[in-house]
């Protein structure tokens, strides 16, 4: 019988960003105090799952500071190393480093970046994001199964847009979307259930809903 695995894609916690910069892949954007509470909440969530018969076997994270800080309490609680996974990095964005992006979009100099929202022309193509995310998920699932057997589970801390477009792909939905409609709150868990044919189903949970409701709507998350 073919083996299975579950890869939990966790979005990082709230970032300290008082100037509301679209930070994208920039260095130096760590978690806020609320974000650190979210990271502790995620650690507790997976510790409870382990107590209920669903232990984690591998941990991986985007190299960005906010992702590394989100996974740190979980790694400490489980005493597991964290694999740094470049392929689950935040999407590239031409507006990275800017604040008040909506206002800036009124300027003609930025209009060429908005020509094709289906691709999108202002950043990394959605298809490319999905491809790199799926490659990372497959490798982690294969490794988890090889090292820990059928039913192995792993957590990967990533970023909203790459997680969301991967979910759209898994649900056979168009990758183009309204960003306001993303169901991927801070420290939410999008679980990909991997079988012989690849991603066979997914589930979504918000362990920190009570905290994410308090979070600021920040760009570049």
Account of the protein in words:
It is a single chain. The chain contains six helices and six strands; from the N terminus they run βαβαβααβαββα. The mean pLDDT is 93. The protein has a six-stranded mixed β-sheet, sandwiched between helices. Helix 4 (126-148) crosses helix 5 (160-170). The chain has 221 residues and is of the alpha/beta class.
Please give a quick description of this structure.
The protein has 221 residues and is of the alpha/beta class. Helices cover 34% and strands 16% of the residues. The chain has one domain (5-212): Phosphoglycerate mutase-like (Rossmann fold, 3-Layer(aba) Sandwich), CATH 3.40.50.
What are its keywords?
Rossmann fold; 16% strand; alpha/beta; 6 helices; 6-stranded mixed β-sheet
Write down the overall geometry.
Answer: globular
Number of domains: 1
Estimate the mean pLDDT confidence.
Answer: 93
Distance between the first and last residues' Cα? 40 Å
Strand order of the largest sheet: 3-2-4-1-5-6
Relative strand content = 15-25%
Tell me the name of the CATH class: Alpha Beta
The Rg value, from CA coordinates, equals 17 Å
CATH topological fold name:
Rossmann fold
Q: Biggest β-sheet: count, sense, barrel?
A: 6 strands, mixed
Q: DSSP helix count?
A: 6
Secondary-structure element pattern, one letter each: EHEHEHHEHEEH
CATH superfamily: Phosphoglycerate mutase-like
Strand count: 6
The CATH architecture term is 3-Layer(aba) Sandwich
Helical percentage: 25-40%
Structural class comes to alpha/beta
Q: Which regions are unreliable across 5 or more consecutive residues at pLDDT < 50?
A: none
Pfam family, one: His_Phos_1
Protein name: Broad specificity phosphatase PhoE
GO molecular function: phosphatase activity
